[in-house]
Write a structure and sequence with these properties.
This protein is of the alpha/beta class. The protein has helices spanning about 1-20, 20-40, 40-55, 60-85, 90, 100-105, 155-165, 175-185, 220-225, 260-280; strands spanning about 95-100, 120, 140-145, 170, 190-195, 205-210, 210-215, 230-240, 240-245, 255, 260, 300.
């Protein structure tokens, strides 16, 4: 069964990759629109999240329209991610820009051999698989990230095969923590971590779009531990099959020689993500239950 699933999935991937990117994007948007009607569970999550965050500002009709567009974008982005994984830098160039590379490259001016490691807090915006293409614009760095292995081995092999084409290194976050730490001890690594999902036990709770949610602190902890500069990276959809990743300004991790509180660092990260969502609400992953309670999470919201 596993072999059959792998063969079918590989065939579908080959079909998608044989089509022009804009055609793939249109098919994805149609598929996303269909999913809005068929996927009742996640549709309700998206509508609930949007109502909680924007119910006082938007009409019910606008909330539903943004939810529908979110689904269309998800269909477009997921299907296009399959196509863009096989595209060369030159083929992708008309569809993809990276803005703010100079902010990252500033850290290559380092008296020690090799550039300093750099942490990038990223989220589920646009075609987020394109984050793995960072190093094409900042070649002094080796891109790396984490992932959670899929339960289905065949699909997990396919996912890793697609992602390997970018040259980015990926670490399974439950089983390869030691390998990640060893890699962080070197230089010239640009580590991107997703920071916009519900976090598990041991997280902290901070405000996000006006409501407290659990926040994974790994980005801030690693930046402090390995003395890495910290930035955000947001992927915006600028048109059909068109994306632009923007590197944010450096988020301070220290006050002089003293480390900042992890909660303060992650509050700044959350604010950067909030600004990105306000700029284009349908560009974010509203189908995730971001604000559900987390066991053991401690509120560290600012008192003022």
């Amino acid at each position: 069964m596993d072999t059959l699933l792998y063969g079918v999935a590989r065939s579908l991937i080959a079909l998608v990759q044989a089509l022009p990117l804009r055609v793939v994007a249109r098919i994805g948007r149609v598929g996303g629109a269909c999913a809005f009607w068929l996927d009742g569970r996640h549709r309700r999550v998206a509508l609930r999240n949007l109502t909680m965050c924007y119910g006082k500002e938007w009409s019910a009709a606008k909330i539903r329209a943004v939810a529908k567009e979110t689904y269309r974008r998800l269909g477009e982005n997921y299907l296009c991610a399959i196509k863009t994984a096989a595209m060369t830098s030159e083929e992708l160039k008309p569809h993809f820009k990276f803005v703010g590379a100079e902010k990252i490259l500033a850290h290559t001016i380092n008296p020690k051999p090799g550039p300093k490691n750099c942490m990038v807090a990223v989220g589920h915006f646009g075609n987020f698989e394109l984050y793995a293409r960072f190093q094409e614009y900042v070649p002094a760095y080796q891109c790396a990230g984490t992932y959670r292995a899929l339960n289905q081995p065949a699909l997990n092999r396919l996912m890793l095969w697609l992602r390997s084409k970018s040259g980015c290194r990926f670490f399974e976050r439950r089983s390869e923590a030691d390998a990640l730490k060893a890699c962080m001890a070197s230089t010239g690594l640009m580590m991107g971590l997703m920071v916009d999902q519900h976090a598990s036990v041991g997280s902290i709770r901070l405000p996000f779009l006006g409501h407290e949610c659990s926040v994974n602190t790994a980005t801030a902890v690693l930046a402090l531990r390995y003395h890495c500069p910290l930035h955000t990276g947001i992927c915006y959809r600028t048109g059909l099959a068109q994306w632009q990743i923007e590197a944010g300004d450096e988020i301070p991790t220290r006050n002089g020689d003293h480390p900042r509180a992890v909660a303060d660092i992650m509050t700044d990260v959350n604010r950067a993500l909030e600004q990105a969502i306000q700029r284009d609400p349908a560009n974010w992953f509203w189908v995730h239950n971001r604000w559900k309670p987390a066991k053991g999470a401690v509120s560290q919201a600012p008192k003022s």
